[in-house]
């Protein structure tokens, strides 16, 4: 992954709320969701709107359970 590729991390907090953290070269944002499905849908929707992006599901202990890179096709 290049340094300029935005990272969207999906993680569950201790209280059961799911968060999507976006970190990029010019943006830091966070969104909260009551369900894992809602958080994943949001993360994938944001990833599809960017030229390239990585989505990672992070466990409570900080390990990456699943990661996928998204890249828009040239038209």
Q: Which descriptors would you attach to this protein?
A:
about 80 residues; alpha+beta; 5-stranded mixed sheet
In short:
This protein is an alpha+beta fold and 75 residues long.
* Strand content range: 35-45%
Mean pLDDT rating: 89
- Strand tally, please? 5
Query: How large, in whole angstroms, is the Cα Rg?
Result: 12 Å
Order of helices and strands, N to C? EEEHEE
> Which parts are unreliable, with pLDDT below 50 for 5 consecutive residues or more?
none
Helix content: 10-25%
Give the domain tally: 1
Structural class: alpha+beta
Sketch the major β-sheet.
Answer: 5 strands, mixed
What does the secondary structure layout of this molecule look like, with pairings?
Elements: E1 7-12, E2 18-23, E3 28-33, H1 36-48, E4 52-58, E5 64-71
Parallel strand pairs: 1-4
Antiparallel strand pairs: 1-2, 2-3, 4-5
Explain what this protein looks like in three dimensions.
The relative contact order is 0.24. The chain is 17% helix and 44% strand. It has one helix spanning 36-48, and strands spanning 7-12, 18-23, 28-33, 52-58, 64-71. It has one domain (7-66). It is built from one helix and five strands. The protein has a five-stranded mixed beta sheet, covered by helices on one side. The chain is an alpha+beta fold.
């Amino acid at each position: 992954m290049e340094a300029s590729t935005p990272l969207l991390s999906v993680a569950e907090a201790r209280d059961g709320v799911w968060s999507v953290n976006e970190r990029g070269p010019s943006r830091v944002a966070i969104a909260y969701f009551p369900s894992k499905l809602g958080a994943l849908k949001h993360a994938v929707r944001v990833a599809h709107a960017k030229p390239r992006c990585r989505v990672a599901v992070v466990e409570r202990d900080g390990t990456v359970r699943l990661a996928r890179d998204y890249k828009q096709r040239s038209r």
